[in-house]
């Protein structure tokens, strides 16, 4: 056994009722047991730990003090070291989070715990999203009575970023998907001599489902992630705190312009996607099925109903609200690190795409049962 050398670690209360604890002695590996006993004896109302009186300090002592501060909820400002100990403390802080992760427990109880935590997290996210939606609705109504809060320049700028810049991508994807649907449909319908029904297949599919769904998925990956990254970076740089300090509302300044821009541009992009998807079907009909464009358009005019178009367009504002609010909410939930920005950006994309598909499936079932 190693013989203990030097004065043992000690603590004392600087002044009764102040919550200030001063440490002295040698806080080294030789006195590991004594350090643990001394830390356990520190009263629970200790608010400041002054380690400036420590004569000798090594990595074991720093780790003990940092873990004690973490258990007591004390930050770095309330755990004070001497200036010559600062480099050692900095090195320990840098490597403190590099410990290998604990092995995952695959037992039944651990699985239930993980499932419970995941369920609680999902419910918490839903509650936060509902609350955030309500807050935005209240502030939109307030903006009607106070038009000076409306940010026209920011709204137009976001309309360009979310709408105009996305037109080529949305149009190209919709055109190619329309062509693929027409080609696959014709491959099966050709066996029954019913190739002409490709017109109804492509038209109904794009007017009701594919145009709005493809547009929403593209914007969920492109726009929601951009909203989260932009607002999250501002949160990490404390710019949002500065906005509040200036007496401005971050919702009015950052969220509502993005929400209004997406509400205006997603229906327009959906309409462009419809036209592009129908153009893909017309192209396959003309070059592969022997259906001239005039005949294709004439049959589409005879068989299509306006209700199919209205069903597809009615989903666009709902998807716009979902994409904008989730993207902005995840940005506001960034904790201040680059890792948090990446995690929240990934979370916003996953949440928006998942919720858009779920809402689209529920809407499709509802419209089908309503015979629309």
Q: What sequence of helices (H) and strands (E) makes up the elements? A: EEHEEHEHHHHHHHHHH
Shape: elongated
Helix content: 55-70%
Strand count: 5
Q: Which regions contain 5 or more consecutive residues with pLDDT less than 50?
A: none
Describe this structure in words.
By secondary structure, this protein is mainly α. It folds into 2 domains: 10-95, 2-Layer Sandwich (Transcription Regulator spoIIAA); 147-369, no CATH class. 70% of the residues lie in helices and 6% in strands. It has helices spanning 32-41, 59-72, 86-95, 108-145, 152-162, 167-189, 198-236, 239-245, 250-287, 293-303, 306-332, 338-369; strands spanning 10-13, 20-27, 48-50, 54-57, 79-80. α6 (167-189) packs antiparallel against α7. The longest helix has 39 residues, at 198-236. The radius of gyration is 31 Å and the shape is elongated.
Structure characteristics:
372 residues; mainly alpha; Transcription Regulator spoIIAA; 2 domains; 12 helices; 70% helix; elongated
How are the secondary structure elements laid out?
Elements: E1 10-13, E2 20-27, H1 32-41, E3 48-50, E4 54-57, H2 59-72, E5 79-80, H3 86-95, H4 108-145, H5 152-162, H6 167-189, H7 198-236, H8 239-245, H9 250-287, H10 293-303, H11 306-332, H12 338-369
Parallel strand pairs: 2-3, 2-4, 3-5
Antiparallel strand pairs: 1-2
Helix pairs in contact: 1-2, 4-9, 5-9, 6-7, 6-9, 7-9, 7-11, 7-12, 9-11, 11-12
Short description:
The protein has 372 residues and is mainly alpha-helical.
